[in-house]
Amino acid sequence: MDNTFLTLKSLHILGAVAFLGNIIITGWWKVMADRTGDARIIAFAQRQVTLTDFVFTAAGAALILATGLGNTAIAHMNISRKRRAAPSFLDPHGGRVGEPTLGAL
């Protein structure tokens, strides 16, 4: 495998961890600050949540987007081309429109 692909994939995972981790921990700090009932602590927590949202969530989202686009470029994938949906257990037609399914029989 190409080393560039693996590097971008690793950065992609790091971006997802930063993005989702910050979203999850934001709720925790908000609840913990609100439980104190102290307006100064709540204000401090809110300022820090806003700062970390900007730093980690925005950076994580940018990293996910950039590395995803980078790996599609390396794989010579055309992301603007219209594709048929992949079959899914959530899709009763299995990605095929107009064909009968077991549910329709």
Low-confidence stretches: 101-105
Oligomer: single chain
Q: Tally the helices: what do you get?
A: 2
Summarize the helix and strand pattern as letters.
HH
Broad structural category: mainly alpha
Gyration radius (Cα, Å) is 21 Å
Helix proportion of residues, in percent?
55-70%
How many β-strand runs?
Answer: 0
The overall pLDDT average reads: 81
Report strand %: under 5%
* Biggest sheet overview: none
Descriptive overview:
The protein is built from two helices and no strands. By secondary structure, the protein is mainly α. The protein has a domain at 10-78. Helix 1 (3-36) packs antiparallel against helix 2 (39-74). The chain is elongated and about 55 Å long. The termini are far apart.
Outline the secondary-structure elements.
Elements: H1 3-36, H2 39-74
Structural key phrases:
single chain, 105 residues, mainly alpha, 67% helix, elongated, disordered C terminus
